[in-house]
Specification:
Elements (H helix, E strand, L loop, with lengths): L2 E7 L1 H18 L5 E7 L3 H10 L4 E11 L8 E6 L9 E9 L3 H11 L5 E9 L12 E5 L5 E2 L15 E6 L1
Parallel strand pairs: 2-3, 2-5, 5-6, 6-7
Antiparallel strand pairs: 1-9, 3-4, 8-9
Bound molecules: inosinic acid.
The site of inosinic acid (IMP) has 16 residues, from β5 and α3.
Length: about 170
């Protein structure tokens, strides 16, 4: 058995949608500075494209989190493995993430960052898989809603591979 990748969202569609999100963010934060907080590793490709397309001043910082438990199903507990380098008190913060799946990672991170008293906190995701949600988590900016399939590309990996694909693909057994 080998694995193939079927294109779910073509490259140009992803780039066009990121431009639309960047425009919406630029409008919302007109006259302000924004701190984009990327969640490693999956957010990196989306965050850099978004930052370059926004036309308000941005700073960037990163956090890393891993859910732990046994097997492939998440335990629902999330461990912070890398924290931010700076204080976010009084800052307009946008968390940037590749995908909201069960919602557990973003749920925990938003609660944690809200305690640090930012001026505002919004969540921006490239993809949303609502069928798999386990906790209440509504992102403020969503690139695409997708069906319950395992996807790769634009930072999303399968066994650490395929993050660099410029389109969103679905892994298929051949
Ligand atoms: P959560 O289940 O919403 O907490 O998502 C945790 C993480 O699972 C995401 O940030 C992704 O890194 C990863 N993930 C969820 N769905 C997929 C997928 O379809 N492909 C690759 N990674 C995924």
């Amino acid at each position: 058995m080998s694995l193939g990748i079927e294109v779910l969202i073509p490259e140009q569609d992803v780039r066009d949608r990121i431009q639309e999100i960047a425009d919406a963010l630029s409008e919302k934060y007109a006259g302000e500075e924004v701190l984009l907080v990327g969640i490693l590793n999956g957010s990196v490709f989306f965050l850099t494209e978004l930052a370059q397309k926004m036309n308000v001043p941005v700073e960037i910082d990163f956090m890393a989190a891993s859910s732990y438990g046994s097997g492939t199903e998440s335990s629902g507990r999330v461990l912070i493995t890398k924290d931010l380098e700076r204080s976010i008190k009084g800052a307009h913060v946008v968390i940037v993430e590749d995908i909201v799946d069960t919602g557990q990672t973003l749920h925990l991170l938003t609660e944690m960052l809200l305690e640090r008293q930012p001026a505002s906190l919004e969540v921006c995701v490239l993809l949303d898989k609502p069928a798999r949600r386990k906790v209440c988590m509504d992102a403020d900016f969503i690139g695409f809603e997708i069906p319950d399939a395992f996807v790769v590309g634009w930072g999303l990996d399968y066994d650490q591979k395929y993050r660099d694909l410029p389109y969103i693909g679905v892994i298929k057994e051949q």
